[in-house]
Amino acid sequence: xxxxxxxxxxxxxxxxxxxxxxxxxxxxxxxxxxxxxxxxxxxxxxxxxxxxxxxxxxxxxxxxxxxxxxxxxxxxxxxxxxxxxxxxxxxxxxxxxxxxxxxxxxxxxxxxxxxxxxxxxxxxxxxxxxxxxxxxxxxxxxxxxxxxxxxxxxxxxxxxxxxxxxxxxxxxxxxxxxxxxxxxxxxxxxxxxxxxxxxxxxxxxxxxxxxxxxxxxxxxxxxxxxxxxxxxxxxxxxxxxxxxxxxxxxxxxxxxxxxxxxxxxxxxxxxxxxxxxxxxxxxxxxxxxxxxxxxxxxxxxxxxxxxxxxxxxxxxxxxxxxxxxxxxxxxxxxxxxxxxxxxxxxxxxxxxxxxxxxxxxxxxxxxxxxxxxxxxxxxxxxxxxxxxxxxxxxxxxxxxxxxxxxxxxxxxxxxxxxxxxxxxxxxxxxxxxxxxxxxxxxxxxxxxxxxxxxxxxxxxxxxxxxxxxx
Length: 470
Fold this sequence. Notes:
Mean pLDDT: 94
Number of helices: 12
Distance between the termini: 56 Å
Structural class: alpha/beta
Radius of gyration: 23 Å
Largest sheet: 8 strands, mixed
């Protein structure tokens, strides 16, 4: 074992999407030297262990590092995302980050990369292969790009017990099945559960052979409203205007969600079940129609035990067998962590500063680090938009996001940066509107007119909830 000493301006821990997006902006906007340490053998973070049929849930145009396009600029012509901007596959995303590291970062001469290494803190990391130790003197900041830990199915430990003989597997192993089981039991109602159901249905599994254990129903986002190109302006910006309108005109939280659903901002699986969860999952209308073919949805709370003949849940039990395959989709995509200051002395902890967009947020935070002088100003501009879990969390993230947008809109230099950054998308979409296009101008007018009343309503509802919980 050998100990090596190094010196760098920025030490970034984690070469997942957040660490890569942060490093990319530093490389473009500063002359700093950057060292990146990661436990995986190549960049991309959790994409290294993602299930084989995973795709982005958001348009590729919104993903990756600022300098390098991921999207091919295509509209999908087949499949359940037909008619919408393409969704990169997991393999495409993994290859993309590998190319960015090799062709942009390492060729710059300013980035050094240490894969297969475990960070121990205080500038020290150790090779997982040969035990060599590295001690780094960091001249400027250490960036903890692992704070938004992504829990993935293949490394996730279920919170329930499993009988030894029960057939139980992560979603990754679905593609390895070599004979028809008695049925499939999907455990988890989030994005992974959605993906598992859709994959089975696309591969012609009878929907009656699928049982879907859904501890909580979720409000879902219509992916059509997240499209960043001008032909979808009325959907994307129109949904934002309708959202502000629905909040502003609402008389209660439940009334607000009803209005949001009626306006097409939110979708739900079952019109007779009121959702309690919100994780920001997006679906297309075609995907929702497929999911609704699965009629055997079990709403008895979380699983407590998978047995040989039955499955115990918080509110009851259901039958199963040793011939059923149980698919673990209970991992939470990003754990709902405690919010901490993004800038704190010599440590930067990237978190979301815009709803649902940790990658844009990392790029934005790197720009603020490069362009603004003092920690107080940086944290003022980069207030954390908390990660959502419950439906009420949607109010919190919307209020926090609107606060940030207002602050950013007061800064001309920041507005220019947002307009030029490809991960922003919507700023360019709004700026590109022809002022003679009255339909689009009316949408923008609705958005502006309802923004402040909507913010007032959100604050009113959140204050009432806080008073109730006090």
